[in-house]
Amino acid sequence: MPRDHRQVKASDAERLYLEDIYVGQRFASASHLVDAQQIKRFARDYDPQAFHLSEEAAASSIFGSIAASGWHTMAISMRLLVESIPIADGVIGASAEVSWPKPTRPGMALQVFSEFIDIKPSRSKPDRAIVTMRCETRDQDSEVVQITIAKLVVFKRP
Fold first, then answer.
1. C-alpha distance from residue 132 to each of 21, 44, 62, 118 (Å)
2. Alpha helices of the chain — where are they, by DSSP H?
3. 147-158, pLDDT tens digit by residue?
4. Pairing relation of β-strands 26-33 and 6-7?
5. Within a domain: 1
């Protein structure tokens, strides 16, 4: 995806309704610095696997060193997404496909780049559409750590 993304905070912008959204519209989030404590805390609570909890265990794993849970990367990405795309009624997911081409590690500064790639008006509920969005979560070197293709429910103005 090209780098001409608009950086916006939801609190700073007019809320977007279906009428305001178009294919090709892009957004860029703020960044979030990941550290080992965050990785271990999330892992203890939600994904208690040794390679997320211990440097020693991670050293002998496929990761070679401590790595964040993919779900931790997803949670950070969701926070950044919600803060950067001011959809009026919220970022309401209908489905998603997620891949993690590179592990998230301590010291990475993550940023989400999003683009609306499809809009399908509902045939049965004329007040809404399913909007497909492609999101890339990138590290400080612009390397992709997560790709999400999400279908969102977006409403027309009341």
1. 11, 33, 33, 5
2. 36-46, 50-53, 55-59, 70-84
3. 999 999 999 999
4. parallel
5. no
Considering its fold, how many domains does the chain have in total?
1
Question: How is residue 90 annotated by DSSP?
Answer: -
* 60 in any annotated domain: yes
The whole model's pTM is what? 0.90
Q: Return the residue matching tokens 């103005």.
A: 157
- DSSP β-ladder status, 109-121 and 128-138: antiparallel
List of E strands, the chain: 6-7, 26-33, 92-99, 109-121, 128-138, 144-155
The sheet with strand 109-121 has its strands ordered as 6-7, 26-33, 109-121, 128-138, 144-155, 92-99
**Which tens digits make up the pLDDT trace of 76-119?**
999 999 999 999 999 999 999 999 999 999 999 999 999 999 99
Are the CB atoms for 116 and 133 separated by under 8 Å? yes
